Amino acid sequence: MSEDRLERLEKIVESNAKSIQALSDAVAQDRQARSKEKEEKAREQAQLYQYLGRIAAAQSSFYEVQADYYHQLAILAERQTKAEEKQAQMREEILAILNRTTPQNDIKQA
After folding, report:
1. What is the pLDDT of residues 45-91, one digit of tens each?
2. How many domains does the chain have?
3. 49 found inside a domain
4. 68 lies in a domain?
């Protein structure tokens, strides 16, 4: 082989080695970038799951408070009904007492 050919082969080999090194560096940088993206995505996903957990807990708490509220409303409605029934009963008793104690003549004149 002539020296010219040998030099050209050395230059080609050197050029190929530089290209391979550049490609290897690019692949390594790409892997590193993807690794960072995966880590960031994992952190964001964990944070989203944490938010979802907090939302679910808050929603559960809301439903619990809402159930307590409706339960208290039912208790108050029941008390109101009992009070109204007792008031109606007292009215009837008062009218019955008045009818017994008031002479019939006074009722007709009024």
Report:
1. 999 999 999 999 999 999 999 999 999 999 999 999 999 999 999 99
2. 1
3. yes
4. yes
Contacts of 99 (CB under 8 A, 6+ apart): 107
Alpha carbon distance 38, 7 (integer Å): 46
Q: What angle do CA 40, 42, 43 make, to 5 degrees?
A: 65
Give domain status of residue 56, yes or no.
Answer: yes
d(CA 80, CA 86): 10
Position 110 in a domain: no
The range of the structural domain enclosing residue 47 comes to 3-105
pLDDT above 90 covers a percentage of the chain that reads 82
As a whole number of angstroms, the distance between CA 33 and CA 20 comes to 20
